[in-house]
Design brief:
The complex is a heterodimer of chains A (255) and B (96).
Chain A (H helix, E strand, L loop, with lengths): L8 H23 L8 H27 L5 H6 L10 H4 L5 H22 L5 H29 L3 H14 L11 H8 L10 H14 L23 H14 L6
Helix pairs in contact in A: 1-2, 1-8, 2-6, 5-6, 5-7, 5-9, 6-7, 6-9
Chain B lengths: L8 E7 L7 E7 L3 H12 L7 E6 L11 H5 L23
Antiparallel strand pairs in B: 1-2, 1-3
Classes of the chains: A mainly alpha (255), B alpha+beta (96).
Chain lengths: 255, 96
């Protein structure tokens, strides 16, 4: 392993923070299911996934922030909306249980090939984070797929709701595979995979599940994007308010 | 809440380490076997308790009745010769 990186540290910092933001924001969304899940067993399952993501977020944000002497807490609690670089898929509202599970499937099926590739990163810290996360995410995909199949191939009502969820969430998956200048430099330096290179593996994971779930793959049309550049959906501000208000009201609060 | 039908009940068995046997740890609700396994993983192994999980539909467990306690178990109570420690080992027996 080489310790000399060909990518500028500013790029590695931004890249780690963007991946960390994905995990942090989805962890926050999933946490909203706490005590609200259909069954207590699923409550624990969703919060386990949220905690896995939060752990990834902490590692990535601490690492990315370290280049500019910003702590993980500063990054999570003191940035404004436009400074968050998570994909919009991660911030979508939970909706009903099918909405949440479809969102999870589409997102985790992106994280799995991402972290798999990142294990071979020229950056040893990112490779280490990925090596731990890849096992967690493998289970996230399995759990979400299990539910999507049961909802899609369940009753007429669950099928219709799952299909509606897929139609609503589907447009947001395109942003996962959108390359930009930062992603290009990161890939060139061997630090991380080019987002567009992950799409084939994602399809291999997602499409068979949708088929088994008897769901119809939506027709591609609208492709919302902008999350990586700090542009977010309207409900994102409310998510941040809930995430940040305690820290902003009582700076340094600990318990 | 009352109109919601609950999923079937499953009994969960965890094997904590290699060479040990599966031990009953509790029960949970799940719609089917695959979900029961996943729920068991999430509920009962989140602190590294296990290497293997069994789930069994609770209605498939055949249990002895508390009413039959005497007929089932009492007769064994006065038969100490069923324990190996009942027997004295004769002098001169090696490797036992």
């Amino acid at each position: 392993m080489t310790t000399e990186l060909s990518a500028p540290t500013a790029d590695i910092a931004d890249y780690a923070i963007r991946l960390g933001d994905d995990a942090l924001i989805l962890a926050q969304r999933l946490s909203e299911w706490s005590a609200n899940s259909p069954e207590i067993e699923e409550d624990v399952a969703l919060l386990n996934i949220a905690l896995d993501l939060l752990g990834q977020a902490r590692s990535l944000l601490a690492y990315g922030g370290g280049f500019t002497e910003r702590s993980e807490d500063e990054l999570a609690y003191q940035r404004e909306e436009r400074s968050f670089t998570n994909v919009q898929l991660a911030e979508l509202e939970n909706g009903n249980f099918a909405d949440t599970m479809v969102r999870q499937l589409l997102f985790s099926a992106y994280q799995l090939p991402l972290y798999t590739a990142l294990q071979a990163s020229a950056d040893q810290q990112l490779a280490a984070v990925a090596a731990k996360a890849v096992k967690e995410v493998t289970y996230h995909v399995e759990h979400a797929a299990t539910w999507v199949v049961r909802l899609g191939d369940g009753t007429e009502l669950s099928h219709d709701r799952c299909q509606a969820a897929l139609e609503a969430v589907w447009p947001y998956h395109h942003e996962l595979f959108a390359d930009d200048e930062l992603a290009g430099r990161i890939a060139e330096a061997g630090v991380g995979p080019l987002p567009s290179s992950l799409r084939a593996r994602w399809q291999d994971l997602v499409l068979p599940v949708l088929g088994e779930a008897t769901l119809t793959v939506p027709v591609d049309g609208w492709r919302p994007s902008g999350g990586r550049a700090g542009l977010h959906t309207q409900p994102f501000g409310y998510l941040l308010a809930e995430l940040q208000h305690l820290h902003r009201s009582h700076p340094g609060a600990a318990w | 809440m009352s109109e919601r039908s609950t999923s079937p009940l499953w009994e969960v068995f965890i094997r904590p380490a290699r060479g040990t046997s599966h031990v009953h740890v509790g029960s949970l609700h799940a719609a089917d076997a695959a979900l029961a396994l996943q729920n068991a993983r999430d509920l009962y192994t989140r602190r590294s308790e296990g290497l293997s999980i069994w789930v069994v539909p609770s209605d498939q467990v055949v249990a002895s009745s508390p009413d039959e306690k005497d007929a089932f178990f009492a007769p064994a109570g006065d038969k100490p010769y069923r324990h190996p420690t009942f027997y004295e080992i004769p002098d001169g027996v090696e490797h036992l």
